């Protein structure tokens, strides 16, 4: 399922798009927010299928070797441990996955060069060589091979990121999030399963409503929340404060004031982490200082009300 941090990021991006486009429709912008979240869930399915394309490419190479006019002993008796990998077969046979890919028109058919490149990087890796030459094989080793493929070969791969962004601009910055979901899915797989257990898009209905409310409350109360920011940045030239910083701080205020079950520290930590990646250098320290002052003021006013012990 999509993490709360990703949902926060999606809300901030949707807010940014709303204000920059000078849209006057909350409904339309909220639809764009949810569509962006759906696209990230698409990418999770797309990434899961990537290893299937790589193994099919490997099967094709083995067939070509067998059809040579003068095949070598290795061509005639290839090591098939990779193409027989049990967890890859489970992924390939997962009906919900194949139906989802077909329904959403997802796949890697148009990118044979990427598949070839990933295969070449895979077979050149130490983890692949160890897997293929290990004296023992089993389901645990099969899962580890696939995990290593995603963590060590796909992650931070420039070509993968280029192809993903070419397929959808909405997937920019989402590769790492989707890979976390893929690895989590692999951790839930068992040899007794005929199909892999796909993660849901949202952990529960609360998460779906949470991201909607975060977006709505920030948008509707933006001027009020921004006035708090301006009150505690009087020594700063407000016009020079990065617009993204203002969005991050106002979204944090929306969560602090409207999500009683989320601890103050969690909200503060999460939005500061987001600032480290999506704003200017030094913004996280600036945002931390401003939000600390605002939180102290809001608590003194009695405006922050949390449910449960220890949530402040």
How would you describe this structure to a colleague?
Helix content is 69%, strand content 0%. The chain has 312 residues and is mainly alpha-helical. The protein has 2 domains: 4-188, no CATH class; 221-301, N-utilizing Substance Protein B Homolog, Chain A, CATH 1.10.940.10. α2 (26-66) crosses α10 (175-188) and α14 (264-278) packs antiparallel against α15 (283-301). The longest helix has 41 residues, at 26-66. The protein is elongated. The two termini are 27 Å apart. The mean pLDDT is 92.
Biggest pleated sheet: none
Number of separate helices = 15
Beta strand %: under 5%
Task: Please estimate the helix content.
Answer: 55-70%
Mean pLDDT: 92
> How many domains make up the coordinates?
2
Order of helices and strands: HHHHHHHHHHHHHHH
* First-to-last CA distance: 27 Å
Class per helix and strand makeup: mainly alpha
Quaternary structure annotation: single chain
Write down how many β-strands occur, each being a DSSP E stretch of 2 or more residues: 0
Shape: elongated
Q: Which parts are unreliable, with pLDDT below 50 for 5 consecutive residues or more? A: none
Rg over alpha carbons: 24 Å
